[in-house]
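Dear colleague,

Thank you for sharing your sequence with our group. We've completed the structure prediction you requested, and as agreed, I am returning the results in plain text so they can be pasted directly into your records. Please verify that the sequence below matches your submission; if there's any discrepancy, let me know and we will rerun it promptly.
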Amino acid sequence: MNTPPPLLASLLDPVPALPAKLAAAWDGASAWIIQYSVWMIVAAVLAAVTVTAVVQSRRSAQRRWHKGARLVAVLPPAGLDPAAALAGARRLWWDLPGLAPPRWKRLVTGLPHLAVEYHLAAGEDLAVCMWLPAPIPTSRIDAALRAAWPGTLVLDRATSAGPATVDSAPRAELVVTGGIVRHERPEHLPLRIPDPRTDAADPLRVLEAVAGQLADGESAVVQIVARPAVGRRLRRYRRTVDRLHSGRPGRRSALASFVSVLVRELMEIVTGSKSTAASHGADDRLARRLDPQHTEELREIRAKKLQPQWEVALRYYAATSAHGPDAADRVRGLADSLFGAFALLAGRNALARHRLSKPRAAIEARRMRRGALLSATELAALAHLPPRTDALSNGQARRVPAPIDATRHL
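Please find the predicted structure tokens below.
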């Protein structure tokens, strides 16, 4: 009787040959590790040194950015209507993505960010400030602001007459409440953009109303930190949008894709049909494409993708120097009003607030790790100059009830 070849015998009965193969593979791997152990140690040390050098370089660069940063006050021009305010903001955020440094420089020093801040104080108008790190020249921002809103005045915050706030008070003497705002749904879904012909859905209109309700010793700050979205984050976002337009899930890992394909193949083997999963998937994609609501959603997602993208972090806080049982409730109500200003943008997507343990310290640090992805138009709806119409300057504004403090002692 002829004996089968070793290869055929191992295929017919793989269990007895498995321990020998594992032992041989282990011996080979051990010999390879011993032979190249020196090179492996050198490669590991070089990788550790490179990562440490890059981390230290980025930290030192960020310290230089904050050390040489400037805080400027932006004074809007007179007669700025809501349509011009939003149109200028769109021009501004379409223009500023050019501030991103080259790829090699981003790898070494990171990507700088800027901050737009709205300062609210009792008895003062809404003040708009911009925090600029050292790599961003003030002249570049000044030119962009004047191009967006002709007649805008940019002043150094240290020399400009800003509103009298309680921010200079020690932290222990203040009751502070605040939070951070993030996307409620996946970031490829856009926010609702207000109609530029009216200021009914303008978030700054709500902030101005909150500023009119502040009493002595109360203040509030809303901060929008933004940097251009470039590199891997932008490529991943665009791949997600392309998958949605092809009828596939927005985001899927390689492991999930492998498991899905494996399960599909096993089901085809068991059922003997190759058209079950494919036909149902094609029918589902066709039905979704024919759905008018889904088609409109895809159109808005595509329109967002075609614009410059920004990573945005939105923080806010309200503070008071008063103490007592009502102080915490007071600042909590003010903080809720601040968040309500941006809840007006809810549409396909919405902004949800989250707890921020030390809101005042986080806003004063002006740091950014990871933000939500917004288009230039969405960022313009959040960060723009407040309208200054002729009706507000010549006494033709509508009458409003007197503040509570004015009638409290009557």
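Summary note from our side: Confidence is low (pLDDT under 50) at residues 159-166, 275-280, 391-404, 406-410.

Kind regards,
the structure core
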